[in-house]
Design a protein that fits this description.
Order of helices and strands: HEEEEEEEEEEE
Radius of gyration: 17 Å
Helix content: under 10%
Largest sheet: 11 strands, antiparallel
Shape: elongated
Number of strands: 11
Length: 166
Amino acid sequence: MLKKLAVIGALMLAPTLGFAQGAGVTFGGVKVNPNEPVEITADELSVDQTNGSAVFAGNVVAGQGDLRLSAAQVRVQYAVVDGVNTGEIDNLFATGGVVLVNGAEAAEAREAVYSVGSSQIEMTGDVVLTQGQSALSGEKLIVDLAAGTGRMVGRVKTIFKTGGNN
């Protein structure tokens, strides 16, 4: 939490670039294969067979390949075809201190939705993306895991660390 506050403070005090429409960013050189298994660990699990969902709560960590998503709670929505639960994960809905890590890059937000089939993650609420010594913040980060790219939208602020020794 202190690291997040320090990054946000630095973003507010340093000269920044603001983009009304959004900024394109890369997100990890590692691409995620949507066919890889998703492993989830948590303190507890509740299953609702009537709507085809499962809720993991407490210290939740979901992993797929090199991708790690942690949150206070993750609701798993399974795909339903012709009224029948297929058992395949359709979406993950993460809330509460969401952290997404892919290699050396990390993004933090209040909420995230991971659409497994399309390999897209949409993070919302005080989003902060750190890439090495650079940081980027905005209202929403949309990550395309198949392409390894992302797009920050909303009131975007950034800090670029230069190579100079000042």
